[in-house]
Amino acid sequence: MVVMDEIKTKVDDAIQELTSIQSALSSSIDHFTACKHATRASVLAESAFFDPSMVSLLYFPDQHKYAIYLPFFLPAAMPLLTALKRVIKDRKSRKDASKDSKT
């Protein structure tokens, strides 16, 4: 998977901000600075995750979905479709039988 340098930079900066949070909290009780670093890390991580070049990688083509799910659902669907066909056939025969008995 190819990741653009801009996205890599955002991720690296977000990780750097996380390290800054740890150092701000371990060296002193500076919650305000840690909160600023946390906000910046969150913004950077979200902008990297929702970058238009990355969002397209989150979705699979339809062919992949069919190739993955068809082996699971086809064995379950075949008996259901056969039973549905049998029910339709039985109703049709009952409807024809009721027409014949009325006449």
Brief digest:
Helices cover 84% and strands 0% of the residues. By secondary structure, the protein is mostly helical.
Description:
With 103 residues, the chain is an all-alpha fold. It is built from 4 helices and no strands. The protein has helices at 5-27, 31-49, 52-55, 62-102. Helix 1 runs antiparallel to helix 2.
* Amino- and carboxy-terminal Cα gap: 72 Å
Instruction: Give Rg in angstroms.
Output: 30 Å
In terms of DSSP E residues, the strand content is under 5%
> Unreliable segments (pLDDT under 50, ≥5 consecutive)?
none
- Mean pLDDT across the residues is 85
- Characterize the main sheet: none
Annotate the secondary structure layout.
Blueprint: H1 5-27, H2 31-49, H3 52-55, H4 62-102
Helix pairs in contact: 1-2
Short key terms for the protein model shown above:
103 residues, mainly alpha, 4 helices, 0% strand
